[in-house]
Amino acid sequence: MNEKVEEAVARAPCVFFLDEMDSFMIRNRSSRHSDYNIGIVNGLLEQLTRLNETAGVIVVGAANHLGLIDPAILRPGRFDLRHEIGPPDRSGIERILSGSLNADAGLDIDTAARRLVGCSGAAVAAAIREAKAQARRQDTPVSNVHLTAAIDRVAADRSDDEAWRIAVHEAGHVVVTWTLTGQLPSLVRLTPDGGEVHHRRARVETLDTARDHIAGLLAGRAAEKVILGSASSGAADDLVQATEMAFHTRHVWGLEGSSLMALPKNALSHFLPGTPLADAVDAMLASQATRAEEAVLRHQHAIITIGGLLLERAELTHVELGMALRAQDLDVEEVGTAKPEETRSCISDA
User: Active-site residue numbers?
Assistant: First the structure.
């Protein structure tokens, strides 16, 4: 790296790009390579300081796992700005496909983009390369047959029943959270691995907001149970997040119950069913699961409507969700109905 830094300094103005930055891991994590890692990170810090002190050099880094990078690398003065680049949205995928393929050749770009929603830009590019490769082998222009076969490799089609279950699940999250808090996600979409809802987390939690958050996390499972008659394994991540939220609410932030003794955040891994601490968390989860199911029962039609739109379009924005829900003429009457005996605030970094 020293040679590249020397070259950047000599050729300023220039951009110095550092990829795979998550390989420079946190130094205080013990492992058999700890000493080596400390030396590597310290060496990088010296080089970054030199680059930032050189007029005309812009340093750009990229990583897949920001949380693995040593914090000293990311502090202001080394990297002042951070920007998360997620998967392209549906319109972005359409532009990638249209720009890389002959859209005037009768290709169904709209259907292809819908199936690729949730895929990374690299996965979309891989599907395009595969479609072109198939066409070259047959010595023909790229057709919908080639494009469909290529997409099957990166985003295998799912059964109608499975797709509807995922759509109902995600719609449950959206509608119940909206009726409880009045907040809509920035985006909800179906993905090759299931679905995702993009909510902005509050930095400050109270008992009311924590309960609402837990109920919203459990709402996808509740929607499956109420509308489809059974839950599925698709709620696994939701249950993990809801359990962590309930644990923090009671045993880290001290927002519920009479005890103010805070437990370490990693203590949750030692909780066993049947113990008093675990039973308190389980009781909180059960009460919010009931609350979520009651909300689903009241708003089944809205959930089915949003689920149908999601199944049709694969992706709904904040604006599209707002228009669809306002057309349902729902009252956001449940906001704040879970009144705690007392409310305390905390800073959430869970």
Answer: 170
| 85 lies in some domain | no
One domain for residues 150 and 169: no
What is the total count of domains within the chain?
3
297 and 343 both lie in a single domain: yes
H-helix segments, the chain: 2-10, 34-52, 71-74, 90-100, 109-116, 121-138, 144-154, 160-181, 207-223, 236-247, 276-298, 300-313, 318-326
Does the N-terminal peptide bond of residue 13 adopt cis geometry, omega within 30 degrees of 0? yes
If asked whether residues 132 and 200 sit together in one domain, one would say no
The string of pLDDT tens digits covering residues 219-245 is 999 999 999 999 999 999 999 999 999
| Pairing mode of beta strands 14-18, 57-61 | parallel
Whether 20 and 58 share a structural domain: yes
The mean pLDDT of the chain is: 86
Instruction: Give CA separation, 341 vs 256, 269, 307, in Å.
Output: 9, 29, 36
Q: Based on C-alpha coordinates, what's the Rg of the chain?
A: 25
Tell whether 70 and 219 lie within a shared domain. Answer: no
Tell me the per-residue pLDDT of 71-123, one tens digit each, with 9 for 90 and over: 888 888 888 888 888 889 999 999 999 999 976 678 999 999 999 998 999 99
More confident residue, 268 or 278: 278
pTM of this structure: 0.76
Q: At what angle do helices 34-52 and 2-10 cross, to 10 degrees?
A: 0
Amino acid at 4: K
Is residue 82 classed as helix, strand or coil in its secondary structure? coil
